[in-house]
Amino acid sequence: MSNFYTVLSLFSRTQLLIGKDSLIRLQDLKIVIFGIGGVGGWTAEALIRSGVKNLTLVDPDNVCQSNINRQLVATQKTIGRPKVDVMKERLLDINPEAEIVALNQKYSKETATDFDLNEYDYVVDAIDSVDDKVLLILNATQSSAQFVSSMGAARKMDPLKVSVAEFWKVKGCPLAATLRRKIKKGGIFPQKKFKCVYSEELLENKDVLESEERVNGSMIHITGVFGLILASLIIQ
C-alpha cells in the first residue's frame, strides 16, 4: 500500500487531470524503449514523470560531447558513461519507487533473441540504425505489445511541423521512405499498423564538420518534441 500512496502523492497533478484509475493503469504498464538519445531520453523522462513505473532502457552508446546540445543524459559530468546508466539514475531520482532496467546493448539481429517483446505492453523505437530499426519494426509488430516509432528528427527546425501518422502514411520523411523500401525488398511486412512521429520539414545543413561529414544537424526543441509526442501516444 505504501508504494500506491507514494505514487499518488508524487503525481497528484496528473491524477487531477486523468483520474486515479488511469494513473494506476499507467503505473502498471510495462514499457521498453530502444534508444536513449535525443528522442528516447525525453520519452523515458515523460513516462516516468507521468506515473509509469516499469521501464526498460536499451542503448549501446556512451555519452559524448556532441550529445550535449540535445540529449537529456548528456552533461559535462556524464561524458563517457553509458547512456542507460545515467538515465536510470535520473529516473530513480524522480521516482525512487520506479523499477528501471538498464541494458547497455544494441538491438540487432545478433541480440534480438535476448528480448521477449511479448513481455511488454508498449515497445518504443527511438533507434537510428536503419537495419536495426527494420528488424525492431518487424519483431515488435509480431508481438502482443503496442508499438510506436520515431522517424528522422534531424535537419528540422519547426516543432509545429511535427506530426503523427501510421507508418505507411508518413510523408516527406527520407528515413520512413528508406525503411519502407527495405521492408518491401525483404518481402516481410509489419504484422499490424503502428503510429510514427515524423516531420515533413527537411532543411539543408549550413555547415560541414571535418570530423563528422555525414552527420546531420539536430536540435533539442525538435528531438525533445519527438520524444514527448511518443510518450503522449502511450499516455493518451
Question: Topology, pairings included?
Answer:
Elements: H1 2-10, H2 12-18, H3 20-28, E1 30-34, H4 40-49, E2 54-58, H5 83-94, E3 99-103, E4 122-125, H6 130-142, E5 146-150, E6 162-166, H7 174-186, E7 195-199, H8 220-235
Parallel strand pairs: 1-2, 1-4, 2-3, 4-5, 5-7
Antiparallel strand pairs: 6-7
Helix pairs in contact: 2-3, 4-5, 4-8, 6-7
Tell me about this structure:
It is a single chain. The chain is of the alpha/beta class and 236 residues long. It has one domain: Rossmann fold (3-Layer(aba) Sandwich). It contains eight helices and seven strands. The chain has a seven-stranded mixed β-sheet, with helices on both faces.
Short overview:
The protein has eight helices and seven strands, in the order αααβαβαββαββαβα. The protein has 236 residues and is α/β, with parallel strands linked by helices. It has a seven-stranded mixed sheet, with helices on both faces.
What brief labels describe this structure?
Rossmann fold; 236 residues; 8 helices; alpha/beta; single chain; 38% helix
Shape: globular
Q: What is the CA-atom radius of gyration, in angstroms? A: 18 Å
CATH architecture: 3-Layer(aba) Sandwich
Largest sheet report: 7 strands, mixed
Please identify which CATH superfamily we are dealing with.
NAD(P)-binding Rossmann-like Domain
